[in-house]
């Protein structure tokens, strides 16, 4: 329902702009992570679990996803708004990573790799990676934070905020 609602809003906005002869750009966000993210999402789940000394389960380790640091996404959105780009613009890294590798990197930073349990769920989509050509070529955005640095910052935020403040 959520995806259908987003797609419907995009189509309505696009039609509105077409009727009014306005330019239209729609940022389609993919998998974001970063400081302050809802704890039930994948990265905070893994980070907080490992930092609290619990085992964490990666339920779809071989699935390939496209994760982007939220601060990079914010910059990409601003650049999209300031550009002449039109249409649907994928806001993503375009860099594939397996969920198992993402968990493993989080475990490495937290020094808790032994607490990661990798599983597979073949009912989930196996590959979701964005085509970011328009983001690179029309918006001219190609300034991504290194994944390890972004995970470091995110994990540090969780150490300072969630774990110290309950």
Q: If you had to describe this structure to a student in words, what would you say it looks like?
A:
The protein has 166 residues and is an alpha/beta fold. It has a single domain (25-165), classed as 3-Layer(aba) Sandwich (Rossmann fold), CATH 3.40.50.720. 46% of the residues lie in helices and 16% in strands. It is built from 7 helices and 8 strands, in the order H-E-E-H-E-E-E-H-E-E-H-E-H-H-H. It has helices at residues 2-19, 42-51, 70-82, 99-110, 133-137, 147-160, 162-165, and strands at 25-29, 31-33, 56-58, 64-65, 67-69, 87-91, 97-98, 116-118. The strands form 4 sheets. A two-stranded parallel ribbon has the order 1-6. Strands 2-5 form a two-stranded parallel sheet. The chain starts with a helix and ends with a helix. The mean pLDDT is 94. It comes from Aminipila terrae. InterPro entries: Epimerase_deHydtase, NAD(P)-bd_dom_sf. This is NAD-dependent epimerase/dehydratase family protein. Belongs to the NAD(P)-dependent epimerase/dehydratase family.
